[in-house]
Amino acid sequence: MKAFSLLPVLSLAVQATAQQRPNIVYIMTDDHTAQMMSCYGNSPVPTPNLDRIANEGVLFSESFVANSLSGPSRACMLTGKHSHKNGFTNNEHGTFDGSQQTMPKLLQKAGYQTALIGKWHLVSQPTGFNHYEILIGQGEYYNPTFLHQDGKSSVEEGYCTDVITDKSIKWLEQRDKEKPFILFVHHKACHRNWLPPMKYLREYEDVTFPLPDNFWDDYEGRQAAKEQQMNIASNHDMDLIYDNKVYLPGDSSRLSSAYLAYANRLDAESRQTYWQFYDSLSRDFYKSKPTGKALTEYKYQRFMRDYAKVTRSLDDNVGRLMDYLRTEGLLDNTLVVYTSDQGFYMGEHGWFDKRFMYEESMRTPLVMRLPDGYKRRGQIDEMVQNIDYAPTFLQMAGVPIPEDMQGQSLVPLLQEEKGPRKWRDALYYHFYEYPAEHMVKRHYGIRTERYKLIHFYNDIDTWELYDLQEDPSEMHNLYGHPDYKKIQKKLHKKLNELRKEYQADEG
């Protein structure tokens, strides 16, 4: 949806030349949520290096995704298009069409060096990159395997977040320094099952994380929320062994092959330390044998502690990369972007994972350190979406934005002390992956500054309406409430307009 006129192509080229065609470092994590970034105000875990990017640049307070799932989110970012247009709607059955137009291809054609290091998760091989080293599938935290551009693979010694940063810095050192570049640094962290680095194995063990206010949600009036399978309380959804690493000491037969495959990638010394630590926790667990709500709260604390350890390592490595850019004199002419492929539930509604259009997973953190020539600083409150990244990078590089891109360039928000008077007033969202893991129903909807309208479809046909000002936790479905009749009608009209504009169908 184009809410304003883009600058003429000639003007873009002049602007890019004046700024010496800025470099772009695009750091993206997996399942890292704004609730776990201290610059967003409420994180129980400090993230000083991520905060540094925000403090030296801008923080988007209203940043969202178009489809809260790893592969589809990445496809939206690469193409600047919603899932139904880029063709990658879900992880279960999707393969990204690498022959289509993408932002890295357009930058490469314009003379940028393009590199991708880390998670890809789009099944097909990357295209549009001069260099890539990618994790296979989800990748591994310990001694991860990388697939190289020549088709060969290698096992790299170390913790995945450290290794990806090492490889990124190595590429920066070896690149052609006469050309601008875009480097995609795509981490596995903070994806399930949250295996911590050895140096932080015992961190946060003395921390008790507060339960979210709606942790014990009963899902009244919300059928799809009730029928999901991503509940911390359920041993089917959050596995006590695989996720919480609690097992009957001495009984290795209960450890799944998947869990053993991850943990046993450690070298012998680290593996011994790992098993000693979790064996001790397991012995304490079986001494107390919590049940009912006490068991659920125990699982929550274990999830949060391991997630926090993974996050701390991530923050360290963002700091390491920023220090390199600063030391090499690259920061003044480099756009540094940090985001995640979507948000994540940290116990809200009693959940982990993502997928729903509800706030915690539709939102995603987004902070940027801007190159010289861009004046905006501090918090930006306009609604932005991950389909906006591609046109933003293109405009900054002086590359014309294709007409079929559905995102909006964020450059107008970054050029002045205050943003443009006119900006989008609504966002469109669509989730397709059902039936599948976690069993979140298919749904689409619209989010405005204050309201959210969602349609769950396929095997059900239900609507939900939320007043985010009065009910920010989305606990009360107001659809059909007489006091919201006019608002509901307006939202339906706006939703239909957006679906028509984006040429969206229900499936």
What sequence of helices (H) and strands (E) makes up the elements?
A: HEHEEHHHEEEEHEHHHHEHEEEHHEEEEH
If you average the pLDDT, what whole number results?
A: 94
Instruction: Look up the CATH topology of the largest domain.
Output: Alkaline Phosphatase, subunit A
Question: How much strand?
Answer: 5-15%
Q: How many strands appear in the DSSP assignment?
A: 16
Q: Uncertain regions: pLDDT < 50 for 5+ in a row?
A: 1-19
**Can you count the helices?**
14
CATH superfamily of the largest domain: Alkaline Phosphatase, subunit A
The structural class is alpha/beta
What is the CATH C-level name of the largest domain? Answer: Alpha Beta
Overall geometric form: globular
Number of domains: 3
Distance from N terminus to C terminus (CA atoms, Å) equals 21 Å
Describe the sheet with the most strands. 10 strands, mixed
| Helix residue percentage | 25-40%
From the 3D coordinates, which CATH architecture of the largest domain would you assign?
A: 3-Layer(aba) Sandwich
Strand order of the largest sheet: 7-6-5-4-8-1-9-10-2-11
